[in-house]
Design goal:
- By secondary structure, the chain is α/β, with parallel strands linked by helices.
- The protein contains four helices and eleven strands.
- A hairpin with a 2-residue loop joins strand 2 and strand 3.
Amino acid sequence: MSVLVFIETSEGKARKSSLEAISYGVALGGDVTAVVLGACGKPELEQLGKYGAKKVIHASDERLNGGVIQAYASVIAQVMKQEGNDTLVMANSSLATPVAARVSVKVGASLATNVTELPKGNTFKRSIYTGKAFSSLELRNTKRIITLRKNAAEAKETGGTAPIVSFSPSLTDADFAAKITSSEKATGEVLLPEASIVVSGGRGMK
């Protein structure tokens, strides 16, 4: 098995959920390659090897800094084809999930979203109805794309290293037909999916 993991970044740093995706990819078996799009510092790229990535592919084209879904899907599909990956893993998110759907069409892969654990054979357990229920999905295709529910896997440091390889994608104006004019992000707080410890309270249950 050859696994590609898409690393989602925020302000040039890998998200915790993407580090979890690397560990999940390692647990699936086979070599794991991480792909990073847009601006990201060398120290941040190098740390991905600590979580199990054997190679880090970096497409630093500044046009990829905006998080345009069509462009991201094109680049990831190109990397999958070049590297010969049969499995793509990414953290389930508002960016990654639509990217995964587009990549699945481009490379002819089966798709399982919001996966909660390692598969049993070819069957994946998914969280549905905003976490109120679960479903089982069998992927029979040899190519698979998996979006992992946040906190479904533990990000484990293995202490390894990974070479960083630059990648120059082939992009067209059609990849940037949609433009993001503005975005708002929460500041001064740790986002719930990125928190190491979550404390909640409420009424007791009988």
